[in-house]
Amino acid sequence: MQILDGRLVAQKIRTELKRKINSFYEKNKIVPGLVVILVGDNPASQVYVRQKVKMAKQVGIHSKVLSLPKDVSFDKLKQTIQNLNTDPAIHALLVQLPLPSSLAWKEVIAHIDPRKDPDCLTAENQGLAWSGQARVLPCTPAGIMKLFEHYNITLKGKKAVVVGRSQIVGLPMAQLLLRANATVTVCHSYTKNLSQITKEADLVVAAAGRQGLLGKNDFKRDAIVVDVGIHRTVENNKKILKGDVLFEELKNGVSYATPVPGGVGPMTVTMLLENTFQLACLATESRTHA
Ligand code: NDP
């Protein structure tokens, strides 16, 4: 079994990205800017946000976190987003999900200027993505496509199964696989006989958010297995991360698999940086042509 090493591929992409950002700066004297809005004190979100900001700095993106209390009002959050929408130094604005239950994420996201939406979550960007005209692709599915590219995995004609249909992972993943000429089945919590379906697939993307949902017996022998799930758990008094797939069972049972951690996670963060840069390029181009 070959491991799809997200850390390695992400590092390679960031090295190239740093070079592109340097020459963009040389030419335009503009530093791409990213703001992450963090509402509340969800410990997992705090870790993700710290990673994003740290890596952004490493590649030459100006980044900052705006922390708001978990009881922030919708109006205050909306005003914060609107101020950032009009700030020319900010090219990408990410609202870290999940939001506290008092805030409806779709209503919040709706206030982000689509030209500053690095995760392709606004309705305008989702529409553009479905019609093949996306400004940028959603970070997690785009990162997974980069992994396939790096390992020369062809998707054309493959039977692919995506487990999960969220707007941020499952649906755009299915769409990108379809665009790459795979034959795609999308499963969800009402799917019957999940194992029967995944067992027939050449490629399975597990994004159900259910720890250990799938194991060796749910895949065919030469399957490609991508695990999006992230679950914080404790084993032998040690805090560890696990996925939706029982990775340790897979050894030599499938052809390729992503580990957790070190698979999809680093690719997601790296694509956020890549998308921030792309949005900065688009903003600069449109200013030049205005
Ligand atoms: P959501 O909870 O938004 O969506 C989960 C999806 O899985 C839903 O469509 C749900 O179905 C489906 N589902 C739930 N249980 C089952 C089941 N037993 N069988 C089949 N389908 C099921 O989660 P996200 O898409 O946001 O995230 C999924 C996982 O990926 C989480 O663990 C999250 O932490 C992780 N994640 C990791 C990232 C990374 O970079 N590695 C990035 C983003 C997320 P239904 O629609 O019917 O409810």
Describe this structure in words.
This protein has 290 residues and is of the alpha/beta class. The protein has 10 helices and 11 strands. The strands form 3 sheets. Strands 1-11-8-7-5-6 form a 6-stranded parallel β-sheet. Strands 3-2-4 form a 3-stranded parallel β-sheet, with helices on both faces. Helix 2 (43-59) crosses helix 10 (264-289) and helix 6 (139-150) crosses helix 10. It is globular. The termini are far apart. The structure holds NADPH dihydro-nicotinamide-adenine-dinucleotide phosphate. NADPH dihydro-nicotinamide-adenine-dinucleotide phosphate is lined by residues 140, 163-166, 168-170, 187-191, 194, 207-210, 213, 228-230, 264-265, 268.
Structural class: alpha/beta
Strand order of the largest sheet: 1-11-8-7-5-6
Q: Could you state the oligomeric state of the chains shown?
A: single chain
Distance between the termini: 52 Å
What string, H for helix and E for strand, traces the elements in order?
EHEHEHEHHHEHEHEEEEHEH
The residue fraction in helices comes out at: 40-55%
Helix tally equals: 10
Backbone shape: globular
